[in-house]
Amino acid sequence: MHTIWKGSISFGLVNIPIKLHAATEDRDVKLRNLHRDCHTPIKYEKVCPSCQVEIKQEEMVKGYEISKGKFVVIGQDELAALREEIEDKSVEIVDFIKIEEIDPIYFDKSYFLSPNEGGKKAYSLLRSALRESNKTGLAKISIRSKEQLAVIRVFKEAILMETIHFPDEVRKVEDVPNVTSESSISKKELDTALLLIDQLTTVFDPEKYHDEYRSKLLDLIHSKESGATVVTSKETATTNVTDLMAALQASIDSTKPKRKKRTTKKATKVQ
């Protein structure tokens, strides 16, 4: 597994040398844009619209737009100085909390932590302490010039770090249009919805769920590659139910287990 960062975890006076590994991966199927006539990949050039010339990387500077068309220019040396101030290659656990106290909206990316040289015992100590206390470490870390909050918890036999958003990065729910606390649903509608939820409730098994679009896209790519004929299956017809109660009842009926029909034999009269 590729190492993307090396540093240490500290809590109190304990310091653990660690390596950081991405816990998830992007499995999207990448499609290139091609010229329709000759199938040549399209080239994207960085062009200055004012000077009408292609710009090289060394000719670029960073800028923050303070108003339309007006920028504050920031030099690469200034950015480098800021990075040096915050990139101390350490994950400092500042508090211990319960994971249930964090709403999932705050979670961002997940990383596996592995012990670096000389850190196995301290790594095991932190893992055992987190398990026994049923607590999660709240830490600060700087990755790729961005300071972030993170939670440190145990996942199976590894220590997992999940970066979380700062509060000001989560938009206010009050700004969401057309959302109101008022409700006009009836008790019957609520009871039917609760029955549907109860019938669909199960134990979470991640292996049950798959990216169907990606699978179909890969099948299409492989069939075209081998020259096979692509056959499109007919989708199951859906009923256009507009009544709320009818939609709930139809959903409940569709989730009920199908019963086998019993066959009854007529008794034969003995003469």
From TrEMBL:
Coiled coil: none
Basic residues bias: start-end ranges: 257-271
Ku domain mapped to chain residues: 52-181
GO biological process: DNA recombination; double-strand break repair via nonhomologous end joining
Entries under InterPro entries matching the protein: DNA_bd_Ku70/Ku80, Prok_Ku, SPOC-like_C_dom_sf
UniProt entry keywords in alphabetical sequence: DNA damage, DNA recombination, DNA repair, DNA-binding
Assembly description: Homodimer. Interacts with LigD.
Cited function: With LigD forms a non-homologous end joining (NHEJ) DNA repair enzyme, which repairs dsDNA breaks with reduced fidelity. Binds linear dsDNA with 5'- and 3'- overhangs but not closed circular dsDNA nor ssDNA. Recruits and stimulates the ligase activity of LigD.
Annotated protein name in UniProt: Non-homologous end joining protein Ku
Organism, as annotated: Bacillus coahuilensis p1.1.43
